């Protein structure tokens, strides 16, 4: 396909959509993005950017406590120790949403600078080569195109017994409208979103109860890592209710009552419902043109983001491949490179690095503990961070580095890091997984002394394959 004579229409301006638009424009295609909610999508406007900014703000609060342990004391004008800090949620949310808006504007300017046309509104496929766009002011436009990318994302799952009201029963997209800190926040759901925001609000000073239907929090994460986080939650005063499934919630006017399936009732000031997301794929013409959907509504795609209909691609949370902004962006870039004839490699999920932004964070890449259980051809090691000299200096007592490698060759297969800023520390292991480096190559690379990354190198040294 001649990219310079190609028209591309993208539905949705989240990471999958805008990254695809940038790639297609650089390859010379005529690109139109039809976006309803704002460039950057939920990742920028209501999810990743604001939630991580709120969590980072809460981290500052915990540093006041750490400072005292390090011998640093804040004093008032009378020379008395200041032991309490307070959070002004209205100011925090204003800053958080301001950051999100700035990021969305930056993305918009970047797209426009590359010649991408942006239509504010919604789109619907009437054929694989025709999209009807309806702008926010009601004007309809027919877009004939050679390639379509669907990147419409997902929206919070709503339970009929816990209908969000935007006042006291909230989704994670509604918490940024709060003007004051909840007195007692009940979080339903202990996956990544629930765990992150539960600890974020705990760190800001709210009383928090986390309702988990599973035996432990973060059930999809490494068990050792999840146990560290749950222990930290409890140690910092959070109430964690394991094996407790919420049956419903109601707004009482001055608070909420969450009823559990076993009959117990929990009273709080607000409830945050974090029970997953559903793809936004209905009503945009996908079924009409023959695009295969899963029962869940997710679009079926292959490793280069093709759907079952020629010329129609899909990327991001609407595909259900891996609900990460980084994966969405990679899917979008791969889709455009493939569609426009550029060099492309299929998506490698085994090399995806992911992070849970709790405190400490959990970062993972590649093969994990559940994959290694009972496999005699895999070696592994776990090094506690408490032994690291830099960790001692920083007052870090929880966390570890875990690494997996192939027995014999020593090729690094995966890793888990539990630490402050684990999202940064996982990068050397991700590089090793992506490029099939051996533990010896990692171990023989200089690290700064003292540094937290020194434990990554030490884990690799512990996995050195001794010749028999």
Q: Largest sheet at a glance? A: 7 strands, mixed
Helix content: 25-40%
- Percent strand equals 15-25%
Question: Helices and strands: which structural class?
Answer: alpha/beta
**Side-by-side strand order of the widest sheet:** 5-4-3-2-1-6-17
- Number of beta strands: 22
Output mean pLDDT: 94
Q: How large, in whole angstroms, is the Cα Rg?
A: 24 Å
What general outline do the C-alpha atoms trace? globular
Catalogue the unreliable spans. none
Number of helices: 14
Distance between the termini: 55 Å
Descriptive account of the structure:
- The structure is a single chain.
- The chain is α/β, with parallel strands linked by helices and about 475 residues long.
- Helices cover about 30% and strands about 25% of the residues.
- The chain contains 14 helices and 22 strands.
- It has helices at about 15-25, 40-45, 50-70, 90-115, 190-205, 225-235, 285-290, 325-340, 370, 390-395, 420-425, 425-435, 440-445, 455-460, and strands at about 5-10, 30-35, 115-125, 130-135, 140-145, 145-150, 155, 170, 185-190, 205-210, 240, 245-250, 255-260, 265-270, 270-275, 275-280, 310-315, 355, 360-365, 380-385, 400-405, 410-420.
- The strands form 5 sheets. Strands 5-4-3-2-1-6-17 form a 7-stranded mixed β-sheet.
- Helix 1 (about 15-25) runs parallel beside helix 8 (about 325-340), helix 3 packs across helix 4 (about 90-115) and helix 3 crosses helix 5 (about 190-205).
- The mean pLDDT is about 95.
């Amino acid at each position: 396909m001649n990219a310079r004579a190609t028209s591309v229409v993208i539905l949705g301006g989240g990471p999958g959509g805008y990254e695809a638009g940038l790639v297609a424009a650089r390859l010379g295609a005529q690109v139109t993005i039809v976006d309803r909610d704002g460039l950057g999508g939920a990742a920028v406007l209501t999810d990743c950017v604001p939630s991580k900014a709120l969590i980072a703000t809460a981290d500052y609060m915990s540093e006041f406590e750490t400072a005292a342990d390090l011998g640093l004391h804040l004093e008032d004008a009378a020379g008395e120790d200041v032991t309490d800090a307070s959070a002004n949620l209205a100011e925090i949310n204003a800053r958080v949403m301001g950051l999100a808006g700035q990021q969305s504007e930056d993305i918009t300017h970047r797209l426009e600078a590359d010649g991408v046309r942006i239509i504010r509104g919604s789109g619907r496929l009437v054929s694989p080569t025709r999209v009807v766009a309806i702008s926010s002011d009601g004007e309809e436009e027919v877009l004939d195109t050679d390639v379509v990318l669907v990147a419409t994302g997902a929206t919070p799952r709503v339970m009929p017994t816990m209908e969000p009201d935007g006042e006291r029963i909230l989704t994670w997209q509604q918490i940024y409208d709060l003007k004051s800190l909840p007195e007692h926040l009940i979080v339903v759901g202990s996956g990544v979103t629930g765990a992150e925001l539960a600890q974020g609000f705990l760190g800001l000073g709210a009383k928090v109860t986390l309702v988990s239907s599973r035996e432990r929090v973060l059930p999809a994460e490494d068990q050792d890592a999840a146990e560290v986080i749950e222990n930290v939650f409890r140690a910092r005063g959070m109430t964690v209710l394991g094996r407790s499934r919420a049956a419903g919630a109601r707004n009482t006017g001055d608070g909420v009552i969450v009823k559990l399936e076993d009959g117990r009732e929990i009273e709080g000031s607000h409830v945050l419902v974090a029970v997953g997301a559903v793809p936004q794929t209905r009503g945009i013409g996908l079924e009409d043109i023959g695009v295969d959907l899963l029962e869940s509504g997710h679009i079926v795609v292959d490793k280069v983001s093709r759907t079952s209909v020629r010329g129609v691609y899909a990327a991001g949370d609407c595909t259900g491949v891996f609900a990460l902004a980084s994966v969405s962006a990679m899917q979008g870039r791969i889709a455009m490179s493939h569609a426009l004839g550029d060099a492309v490699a299929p998506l490698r999920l085994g090399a995806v690095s992911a992070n849970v932004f709790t405190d400490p964070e959990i970062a993972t890449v590649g093969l994990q503990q559940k994959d290694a259980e009972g496999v005699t051809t895999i070696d592994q090691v776990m090094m506690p961070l408490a032994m690291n000299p830099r960790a001692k200096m920083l007052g870090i007592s929880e966390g570890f580095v875990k690494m997996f490698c192939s027995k014999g060759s020593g090729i690094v297969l995966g890793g888990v890091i539990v630490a402050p800023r684990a999202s940064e520390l996982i990068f050397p292991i991700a590089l090793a997984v992506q490029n099939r480096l051996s533990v010896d190559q990692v171990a023989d690379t200089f690290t700064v002394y003292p540094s937290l990354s020194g434990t990554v190198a030490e884990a690799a040294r512990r996995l050195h394959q001794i010749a028999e």
